[in-house]
Amino acid sequence: MRNDRREAFIQYLATKNDWCTAASLASYFKVSTRTIRKYVNEINRDQMVITSSAQGYQLISRDKVKTDNHYTSPIDRIKVILKELILHTEGLNIFDLGDKLFLSVSSIENDMVQANKMIKPYSLKIRHKKDTLILLGEETDKRRLMSFIISQETSEEFLSLKAVQDSFPNYDVFSLKNEIASILEEFNLYVNDYIMNNLLLHLVITLDRIKNNNSVIQSSDLNKLKSNFETEAANKIADLLEVKYGIAFNESERYNFILLLSSKTTLLNYQSLTSSSLNRYVAEHYVNLSKKLLEKVHECYFIEIVDDEFFVKFTLHIRNLLFRAKHGQMVKNPLTYKLKDSYPLIYELAVFISNQIQLMENIHINEDEISYIAFHIGSYFERRKNLEKKIICAVICPNYYDMRLQLIQKLEKKFHNSLEIIKVLSDSSEIVLLEKIDLIISTLPLKDEQTPSVFVHPYLTEEDYGYIQIQLNKLNKQKKNRKVKQYLDLYFDEDLFMKNVYLDSDESYIAFMAKLLYEKGYVSIDYGKSVLERERMSSTAFNNNVAVPHSMHMDAAKTGICIIILDRPVNWGKEKVQIIVMISINKQQRELFSPFFEGVINILSEWRNVHELIKAKDYNDFMEKMMRLLNEN
Question: Which parts of the sequence belong to the PTS EIIA type-2 domain (predicted)?
Answer without folding.
Answer: 490-633
